[in-house]
Design a protein that fits this description.
Blueprint lengths: L1 H7 L1 H27 L5 H9 L13 H11 L3 H21 L3 H17 L6 H13 L10 H15 L12
Helix pairs in contact: 2-5, 2-7, 3-4, 5-6, 6-7
Length: 174
């Protein structure tokens, strides 16, 4: 019952919109500072590989696969990472603030939060992750007061054409 209200109620949509704009501003601001401030992820990645998240009881890395990924995939491709992180953060912020492709923006924001947490950076990541989950769980109601209100019917119509389906999800003859 609570989830139904969170996903459909107009007052819940107002609350979600406020949360969405706050989280979006945080992402937009972080991305903008990285885009204009000469961002280089090399130091962060080297630090995350050199000092991974350690289990205090066993003194072993908590996420050895992620450390391996950082060392063997991310670090050799740091120039790509230096573009993807700031542009991604900025676009996540724009999507959340404008309410355009809101669920995709919330999903990718949560993914970045998880990646930063796996690397050992706490900062605001748990807070933004929790708020991002609140937005994501709201489903279509998260974009009710945004571009998604107008974009959703167009996407549904286009998706139906691609899948050769009518507006109700049933296959049509070609």
């Amino acid at each position: 019952m609570v989830m139904k209200a969170w996903r459909a109620n107009v007052w819940a949509a107002v609350a979600i919109t406020l949360i969405r704009i706050y989280v979006g501003w945080q992402w937009l601001d972080a991305g903008w500072h990285k885009l204009t401030g000469g961002f280089d992820a090399g130091g962060f990645l080297n630090g995350a590989v050199a000092k991974p998240v350690i289990d205090r009881a066993t003194n072993e890395a908590q996420f050895p696969n992620y450390t391996y990924f950082l060392h063997h995939v991310a670090l050799p491709n740091v120039k790509i990472i230096n573009v993807l992180i700031p542009v991604g953060e900025f676009l996540i912020g724009v999507g959340l603030i404008l309410g355009g492709l809101t669920l995709a923006a919330a999903f990718f924001g949560m993914m970045l939060n998880f990646l930063f947490l796996f690397a050992g950076t706490v900062s605001t990541n748990p807070w933004l992750l929790m708020l991002g989950m609140i937005v994501f769980v709201a489903g279509a109601n998260a974009g009710r007061f945004g571009i998604d209100y107008y974009l959703k019917p167009l996407l549904r119509k286009g998706w139906a054409r691609v899948g050769h389906r009518d507006g109700k999800g049933k296959l049509t003859a070609q």
